[in-house]
Specification:
SH3 type barrels
Amino acid sequence: MTHTLFAEDPPAQPQPPQGGLGGPMFPFFLIGLMLLFWVVVILPMSRRQKREQESMLANLKRGTKVLTSGGIVATIVAAKDGEDEIVIRSEDTRLRIKRNVVVQVLGSDEAEAAKG
C-alpha cells in the first residue's frame, strides 16, 4: 500500500487594510477635520461674541444696571462717550471702573442713578 503526500502551501496571512483607520494618512485626516471644525464653528462664534461685547460696552449710559467681572451689581452714575472709565454706584459706594470690567447689562434703573 502506497501513500501519496501532497505538499500544501501554508495558509495565507491576512494583509492589513490599506487606507482607512490604519493608514499612514489618518493623523493628517484628523488634523484636517479639527482645523475645518475650528474654521467653521469656533472662529465665527468668537467673532460674534466679541462684536456683541463691544456693542454692549459702547451703549452703556447713565441709569443702566450692570454686573462687573468682580461680581458687583451696580448702577451707572456717569458714563461719557469715548472715555474708558465709568462711575458706578452700588448701595452707598461710588466706584470708578473701566468699561471692559462690565460683563452683563441687567436692565435700567433711572431712580438709582438720580440718587448718585
